[in-house]
Amino acid sequence: MILQALYDYYQRKAADVDSNIAPEGWEWKELPFLVVINQAGDFVRFEDTREGDGRLKRARKFLVPQSDKRTIGIKAFLLWDNIEYVLGANPRNRSDIGKRTQAFLERVESIVDGHPDIKSVFKFIKNDPLAQVEKCSPAVWPEMLEGNVFVTFKVEGSLLDTVCAALPKTMPVSSDAGSDVCLITGEKVQAARLHPSIKGVKDANTTGAAIVSFNLSAFCSYGKDQNRNAPVGDKATFAYTTALNRLLGKESLNKVSIADATMVFWSQKPANGFDLESNFGWFFKSDNDDPDKGVASIKSLFQAVESGRLPLDEGDQFYVLGLAPNAARLSVRFWKTGAVQDFAVKIYQHFRDFEIARGPKDLEFLSLYQILTSLVLAYKMDNVPPNLAGAMVFSVLEGTPYPRTLLQQCVRRIRAEQHVTRARAAILKASMNRFNRFYNKGAREVTVSLDRMNVDPGYRMGRLFAVLEKIQEESSPGTNATIRDRFYGAASSTPVTVFPRLLKLKNHHLAKLNPGRKVQMEKEIQEVMAAVQKFPSCFTLDAQAMFAVGYYHQRQDFFTKKDMDNK
Fold first, then answer.
1. Do 243 and 3 meet the contact criterion of CB atoms below 8 Å apart?
2. Phi–psi pair at 151, nearest 5 degrees
């Protein structure tokens, strides 16, 4: 199903003349340098294609004939390769360097009659190219040797951008008939023995990894070797790998990295109405990427759902694929398909579930990056527990309860830091509401802002703790530590051991307030305590979550009142 969807995506893009996807038999490759020669085949200079400064330097992409997967053998690419094959340089002290340059020469010789520029390249390669380069001593040559960079050719005075452009625009991939049935097309083909590498997955092998691979006898069946155990023809192999590499490209807007997983997404058909494919990534990216774009995308989703502008065609499918590195292979962390309308509605519900009272300077919506990093030490995505990101995405797209570890991790982090942030309160609210919606129907939903009618013991204790802290803050302005720093953990887990003492201490703090404010805060305590008959001896994890939400709601309510009073 995954390969079929990727194959269809390639066909869709190939039919669009503006998509710029590599045609059959070609690929886009970053080449930092061009070898510029004259028509007589003499070396002129190296042309640096990189732009930017320092680590931000990026080489220009060129359309080149598709490379072959190299293992331990010698195999030259057509009209482009690293400088070992192209120039005979030997930065790695290889003993077979002569065989490499000979293999490259033979590939060029096989097409030498095609175009004058190719003849110039052939002359250059036959005339000791390494000696020509070293004689000129280009300034960039040491850098090129160190990186064993990939290069191609450009003939001075030619109208072609590179010599590769002299080749036929379409270079058909082999489609020899065979006895294998292609898993994608259903045609009788000779199955591809090796599939091109997939690049762009976070933390995977930089040279690429395989999504289809059988390299040990234990993985094989029925006497078949390598990828013939999952037969896919050369044409279909080219299509699905090109499509996936396109989605994983550095400039791709169809890719998001979340913790240890890389997520790609695409539509079966071009957008008709709300463009989920163009907006999907912004629902999950960090605020640093482009906060304005993220907010605009989410608002457009809300408008589309609430106004009914979503595509209603059930056949208009949307695909989400989560990949994670696994040595030289890629593991599929999650795979989700469904109608565009279903995806949009479930993402809409996710943002609704995470709505909670916020400050005037807070961003309107929480990204998945904010949600996950708020759970861990130092707010670093690297510290997010394994598999939590994938499970979270799956819950969003399925519309199911969030993983239980989300709530557990959030409560633990709050107790460790004694700090209930907007993101953490939203996590607890969303987790409890989703759970109750599925397994405890009829339970009272946690509201966006302060709910004075909620008599849940955990919620009430959280509110009371916030009121007592507010009294302390107002009675001792500028204090370095409040009761939250000393008593939050005990108050949220064993209220009976803390609150009697805090209620006695509050009288000392109330005495410092002006009479009007004192009466106001006493009424606040009375309103909270009206539904409390006794202090609970201990709280479960869910009750601790309600404590945190009640505390957060009450604190936000204080700030909201203050803002209104100042108007």
1. no
2. -140, 165
Parse the chain into domains and list their residue ranges. Answer: 1-17+172-251, 26-166, 269-310+340-448, 452-567
Other Cβ atoms less than 10 A from the Cβ of 163: the count is 24
Residue 64, Cβ neighbours under 10 Å: how many?
24
Relative to beta strand 61-65, strand 43-48 is unpaired
Question: Three-state SS for 323?
Answer: strand
- CA dist 88 and 416 (Å) reads 60
Q: What distances in angstroms separate CA 564 from CA 120, 216, 509, 561, one per listed residue?
A: 79, 70, 25, 5
Which burial class, exposed, middle or buried, applies to 529 when counting CB atoms under 10 A from its CB (0-12, 13-18, 19+)?
Answer: middle
Question: Buried b / exposed e across 214-233, counting CB within 10 Å, b at 16+?
Answer: beeeeeeeeeeebbbbbbbb
Burial class (CB in 10 A: 0-12, 13-18, 19+), 344: buried
Specify the amino acid at residue 236.
A
Closest to 76 measured CA to CA, from 97, 61, 92:
97
pTM, entire model: 0.87
Q: Please, which residues have CB within 8 angstroms of residue 477's CB and are 6 or more apart in sequence? A: none
- Distance, in Å, from the CA atom of 219 to the CA atom of 43, rounded to the nearest integer, reads 49
Helix axes 483-493, 541-566, angle to 10 degrees: 140
Return the biggest CA–CA distance within the chain. 99
Nearest to 267 by CA among 489, 16, 516: 16
pLDDT digits (tens, 9 = 90+) for 193-209: 889 999 999 999 888 99
What is the Cα–Cα distance from 270 to 276, expressed in whole angstroms?
10
Q: Which two tokens stand for residue 166?
A: 């002299």
Helical ranges in 128-285 per DSSP H? 129-136, 141-147, 234-247, 276-279
Spatial separation of the C-alpha atoms in residues 274 and 261, rounded to whole Å: 27
d(CA 104, CA 89): 13
Interval 36-92: pLDDT, tens: 999 999 999 999 999 988 777 899 999 999 998 887 789 999 999 999 999 999 999
The predicted-structure confidence for 363-412, as pLDDT tens digits, reads as follows 889 999 999 999 999 999 889 987 898 899 999 999 999 999 999 999 99
- CB burial readout 374-388, b (16+ within 10 A) else e: bbbeeeeeeebbebb
The 3 state secondary structure assigned to 72-113 is: CCCCCCCCEEEHHHHHCCCCCCCCCHHHHHHHHHHHHHCCCC
Distance of CA 521 to the CA centre of its chain: 47
User: How, if at all, do strands 180-181 and 188-189 pair?
Assistant: antiparallel
Gap between the Cα atoms of 522 and 529, Å rounded:
10
Q: What is the DSSP string of 367-425?
A: -HHHHHHTTSGGG-GGGSPTTHHHHHHHHHHHTPPPPHHHHHHHHHHHHHHT---HHHH
Q: How many CB atoms lie within 10 A of CB 31?
A: 21
> Which residues have CB under 8 Å from 74's CB, separation 6+?
96, 99, 100, 103
Nearest to 107 by CA among 125, 89, 83: 125
